[in-house]
UniProtKB/TrEMBL annotation:
Domain of life: Bacteria
Organism of derivation: Nocardia yunnanensis
Record-level Gene Ontology MF annotations: triacylglycerol lipase activity
Signal peptide coordinates: 1-36
Protein name, as recorded: Lipase
Length: 439
């Protein structure tokens, strides 16, 4: 069920001084558990009736992006649009999704027609206020009551593609900003959100279904872009997808939930579980019987948190503190057949992408396991896909701390030498590529 909304408690982006105060308050761990999330802006309410066509543009509003350097012609801020578009849940029900569209501001530096790059964000949280379309103007969204903050971790990639002359669309995913729970790492719903964002971008730019497209994502976004790549032939066959970057893809949730237990972002286990419980409510009695009252309260709190809030209030969270027998939640999830069925259904790799995919993964990634990313490449290669798999050999630094071992490879693989950026520019330039290469 959609979370209840109360228009009397709306919050909006605030000044940089208040942002600094909010970050300080949250980082100091002074925040009390947050109440149910309220709408962050009237824009995120969908109309009572809207076009159910996947990729239909429901509404837009102008946005000025200040968190970017002035253009070569001195233009600033960067104009953009906050967008609401139609997608589909895993049960094929129409749903309104929000996102950010940045029209190109300079000539495309590659060859051929101007492309559109759809960016699937990495983990930002589960609360509505975590939607990146809120954070784009200043680079961060923050609020004091209740204290919360969310940084725009996709700004660098969005601005890099904009500087190359590409159109950019960054989806917020289903249930992020808009009514309902964000179904974290749900491969079907994330793929739909990405593919329908591409359709919406084609409508916004009036460029047509032949527009060259690239999908870009890391971590949760890597899983979303990978799922979009393999579902595109069946769900959106008209799209002209040239290539995909799936960095540290969340391809096998069972392996990932094991890995993040006790890590800096261990609370993300709750994000996944909340999504499961919303889409499969029959699971709740079984899980309720295994969790303490504090555990149930924690899940409710996490459903309204951003990843920054989780790091500030629940770093290195271990779920055994919240179960009746003091075993980790993931152990209980292994014992529930319905949960195991869901995890199998959520595994990426059972379909075949029709366009080239670059998969990157850090051998020492302490958050998204290297082995399951490599397995995705192997599965796709066996089915005849064009796949390049690259291993990042960054040595382990403070294992479990997430930032150096997980986000370090994102910067190196996305923008460094032999980068994902270069790989996708080659695909958009129609540089030939076929077969599999797994290093």
């Amino acid at each position: 069920m959609p979370r209840q909304r109360n228009s009397a408690a709306r919050s909006r982006p605030i000044s940089l001084v208040k942002i600094a105060v909010a970050v300080t308050v949250v980082a100091a761990g002074m925040a009390a558990p947050r109440a149910a999330a309220e709408p962050v802006d009237d824009f995120y309410y969908p109309p009572s009736q809207f076009d159910a066509t996947p990729g239909a543009v429901i509404k837009t509003e102008g946005m000025s992006i200040y968190a970017v350097a002035p253009g070569s012609d001195g233009s600033w801020p960067l104009p953009a649009q906050r967008v609401m578009y139609t997608s589909r849940t895993q049960d094929d029900a129409p749903v309104a999704v929000s996102g950010t569209f940045i029209e190109a501001s300079q000539p495309w530096r590659g060859s051929g027609p101007r492309p559109t790059v759809v960016i699937a964000p990495g983990t930002v949280g589960q609360g509505d206020q975590c939607a990146l379309s809120l954070a784009f103007p200043t680079g961060i969204y923050a609020n004091l009551t209740p204290p919360t903050f969310s940084a725009n971790q996709e700004a660098q990639s969005a601005f890099a593609w904009n500087a190359l002359g590409a159109r950019v669309f960054v989806t917020d995913y289903i249930g992020m900003g808009t009514p309902g729970i964000h179904t974290y790492a749900n491969r079907i719903e994330e793929a739909h959100a990405v593919l329908d964002a591409a359709r919406a971008a084609n409508r916004l730019s009036d460029s047509g279904s032949g527009t060259p497209l690239a999908f870009w994502g890391y971590s949760q976004g890597g899983g979303a872009s990978a799922a979009a790549a393999e579902m595109q032939p069946g769900y959106a066959p008209e799209l002209n997808v040239k290539g995909t970057w799936a960095g540290a893809p969340t391809a096998d949730l069972a392996a990932i939930l094991d890995r993040i237990e006790g890590s800096l972002i261990g609370g993300a286990v709750g994000f996944a579980l909340n999504g499961f419980l919303d889409r499969y409510p029959a699971l709740r009695p079984e899980l309720d019987a295994r969790m303490t009252p504090a555990g149930k309260s924690l899940l409710q709190e996490l459903s309204n948190d951003c990843i920054g809030d989780v790091i500030a209030r629940h770093p290195f969270l271990r779920t055994n503190e919240y179960t009746v027998d003091h075993r980790p939640l993931v152990d209980h999830m292994r014992e529930i057949p319905a949960v195991q069925d869901i995890l199998r259904q959520q595994r990426i790799g059972s379909l075949t992408p029709a366009s080239p995919v670059l998969i990157t993964s850090g051998r020492n990634d302490d958050t998204v396991p290297y082995g399951q990313a490599r397995q995705l490449a192997t599965d796709w290669c066996r089915s005849g896909a064009t796949v390049t798999f690259r291993t990042d050999e960054l040595p382990p630094i403070l294992p479990g701390a997430t930032i150096p071992n997980h986000f370090g490879p994102e910067l190196l693989d996305g923008f460094g030498t032999d980068s994902a950026l270069g790989y996708l520019v080659d695909r958009l330039n129609d540089k030939p590529l076929s077969g599999c290469a797994i290093d």
